Write the structure tokens for this entry.
Amino acid sequence: MQTTWAYISNYSIYSAMAVFALSFLAHAFETAWAVRSPELADSASGNTLNRTFDYTRTERAARIATAMMVLAFLLLFVGVVARGLSNGHVPWGNMYEFSITGALAFTGAYLVALRKHDLRWLGLFISIAALLTLGTAVTLLYRDSAPLVPALKSTWLVIHVIAAIISGGVFLLSNVIAGAFLYLDSMERRGGRKPWAKRLPELETLDQLSYRLVAFVFPLWTFSVIAGAIWAESAWGRYWGWDPKETWAFITWVAYAAYLHARVTIGWRGRRAAWLCLFAGSTFLFNYVYVNVWGTGKHTYSGL
Amino acid sequence: MSSQVEVPELGAGGLARFAWRQLTSMRTALILLMLLGVAAIPGSLVPQRSQNPMAVRQYFIDNPQSARWIDRFSGFEVYSSPWFSAIYILLFISLIGCVLPRSIEHFKAMRALPPATPKNLSRMEFFSSFDGNKANFDKGAAWLKRKRFRIRHENGAISAEKGYLRETGNLLFHLSLILILVGISVGSLFGMRGEAIVNEGERFISVPTSYDTLSFGKLVNEDVIDPFIIEVEDFQADYDPVTAAPRDYTAKVRVTNPGEESSEEKILKVNSPLTFGNTRVYLQANGYAPIVTVRDTAGYVVFQGPVTFLPQDGFLKSIGSIKVPDARPQLGFVASFLPTYSRSAVDGGISLFPEALDPRLLFSIWEGDLGLDTGIPQSVYRIDTSEMSRIALSSLKPGETFNFSAGSITFESFVPWINLQIVNDPGKAYALYGAIAAILGLLASLFGRRRRIWIRITPSGVVEVAGLAKNGAPGLEEELALLTAHMRDEK
């Protein structure tokens, strides 16, 4: 029975990847269609760059892309749950499992945000990011379903890791938005947005959104670090030991704390804030990749 | 030619005030915060004595030149180094200097009335007005009161403010960080930490001499050790048959509390330590201790007992040494214990599984001077064979005996051992309370919305409503719309 669940999980994740790929193509088509609009090519006026577009033509592609994203999310959800059923514990016991759950949280955060804001322009990045994460997971990080090592057998595994995964997903989303801000900002400085970029939100909106995501998830990240400390106290006999993963979690915390202070107290906005946000996010990524793969210390389990 | 530049006299007091103002400025605090993050990095790249002293020793052997320089800057103990301490102490002084005055100010503001209603409300955000009467105005006042706004009543106007929780949370968060730091300091000044290896079937009596390693906080001594007794009755390790990864460790122990006669059975597991007051006992590691008997040529026992071996890999291939200083000449056995024996062409004897399915003791026998009398401390797991010569090489199954020129060795059996970590941290409760308060404060400060609302009724019967959101707090427009609708709704 456990093997069956493991197979179901693997097939669901492969299917989810295929659907993410379709979603990516649909998003790409949507964007490309806007750029190569025949109206633009035929326009004789010369100042084509300033024309506004009628996006009703790409509406269908956008809807298909979002539908695909939802479908991929559901498949991935099945894959993650089946993985949990196959090994009898929550599916975040090793790096493969962190990755698939992380991709699920990341896509989930996007879909939830999509209900309130029109973020479909982000779909292109989200689908390719999810696809790359899952691709890396199934090719490089895959490990057969296995039971947990004794140190991980704790309720805190569920609490600490889910908080860390959700925080990570939202931090990355905020980073994507900060990256988009910087890109569009430099585009505007060089003389205005290109046609395809015109439908993207105002710089002000991106700046605010990126900040709000961080402000929203910073307490959760704090909680994740504290939950980890409580767990470490009962598993390793100390609540803080400057283990590499702990150290980098602390660095990420400090970097985001600095970001929030810079915005709220000193009033940083725009480019400087976006760069600081990207820096803070990169410490999180570094922690995830470097400490898990090449690092030593107490957070390296079961191969990866 | 010398020129005298006229400098305004600052004086010692002025200089101190200037330094204090610089230190407690937001910019300095922010720089210190970033600096703290950057200063934490080297400790994750260079091995640290507190976590992995073996790796530090290896680093000194591999790169003696750079190791000396790293050591000169406390690179192997970054988190207790003077420069790291300097950063966080400055940061916390800056924090206190920033937060305490603000707390007092906030306390005063909470007891004061909101500021008076501005003359010209139409300049404010979300201004609206309608023709109404005193009844509309009173309804608005009641609404604000019900929503627990702080209200200043004026002649024909109301100034209301809400969301002080934001600043309260902000201050609570920063004060809690100080509490966490206090907890950490108390732990390191008054705490105690030690380790002991205990074989299955043996007793551990918590007195200073029973510990393998023991360290104390700066302000305490051996008196903090709780004199409890732990007898390890049984230890079971459960491994996954396919991956050989451990699934569960269970130690059945008999515990006697300090000063008590009676004892009780307890289960000790990796995530569930034993607790004696402030002291907790953790199950940290496990391994095997082969039991051997060494006899001389006349058949007299010169050594007998379990010898703790150190695990080397996930399959519990363990190494150790049996030192027999009472033999003449002295004998040493450089040995390895393989719980599930197999041979590989490259590594020789290896273990295939951590459970003792086919145990084997491999050893080489050395004769000569063990060097125990030189006064230089030795590892119990290794033998310095520089003054010895090898006389034999063999392997034994449990129960077997090997005879050699100077006597015989019998591999009687083996027992598992567990490594107990004993920690007394009197500061951790403060750190935990600090952490909980920090989260609550953070939530309040990030999600609290501070805003002001004004209502005024002019003599001509125009009701004006306006608001002001601090820090761009969202949702004020909706709130004002609700208020206005409520005021106009005549029932």
